[in-house]
Amino acid sequence: MYMSWKKWEHLLPELSNVRAQLEATLRLKSGSYTSIMGANAFDEDKMYPAIVVLLIARMFGHTTRSMRYLASVVQCIHVATEIHRTIPDERAGTIRDGQTIPFAALVGDLLYARFFALLCEGEILSCLYPLSQSICAMHEGAMIRKELVETGYAQENHTEAMRTLEGTSLVVTACRLAGQAGNASFEESQALEQFGRAVGMLGAQRLTSLSTSQAAHWLAQGLDAIEQLPQGAANDACRLLLNNLGARWRSETPRSAVVVADVACVPCTSKWVV
């Protein structure tokens, strides 16, 4: 069962900043963020990129202004890409001059533009290159999905490439950047990337189309990764996120699962600056 956004904001109060950024970006005459994105727009299976950044920041005691901006940046990229996936495939017809641009394309482009603005506002332009590489990888994966997977021509190596590129690239990069900011060791960085791959595979279930055994594999990979990371409330919350994202493939909650009541609100070591 998913945990509500209010409960995640209780565990990580700074998530309210990410929510505010998204709501401010899509405060349009045509509607609010939730009216455009749906009532479940802030569910954890939609917001996991921002959640992992802030959990890692807490885990390594680096709860700074730049990390709050990084969380907002990766969430904008994630949402923009999700929106662009809803645009109909134009190959069935011909695009003509003067044809109306789909509303989804405009909203996605707005969020991509906001991602650049947030990088500047948060003074984290050093993150631009790795994040741009992630965007390229995600779209390369999307092309494989469109050209091969959805048309039935994909072999197993194509499906795996699609899952890795489209499903995990952004989250792995976000975990790496958050770990670097917190001075994670080489071994910890490797574990963070493994954790990011697991979260990406489980979170992007609609794209990755994992079997029950594959989902169990990635859940185990993620849980193994966080065992190698600093222990505490943030680590427990990472375990909670993994279990929740993987719950749809399990008939019962494993004995190692963390329940919400067992996870304390992680004390913030520095004040967020807007």
TrEMBL record:
Belongs to the FPP/GGPP synthase family. One of its GO terms (molecular function) is prenyltransferase activity. SUPFAM superfamilies: Terpenoid synthases (SSF48576). This is Polyprenyl synthetase. The lineage of its organism: Bacteria, Bacillati, Bacillota, Clostridia, Eubacteriales. Pfam families: polyprenyl_synt (PF00348). One of its GO terms (biological process) is isoprenoid biosynthetic process. The keyword Manganese does not apply. It comes from Heliophilum fasciatum. Keywords: Transferase.
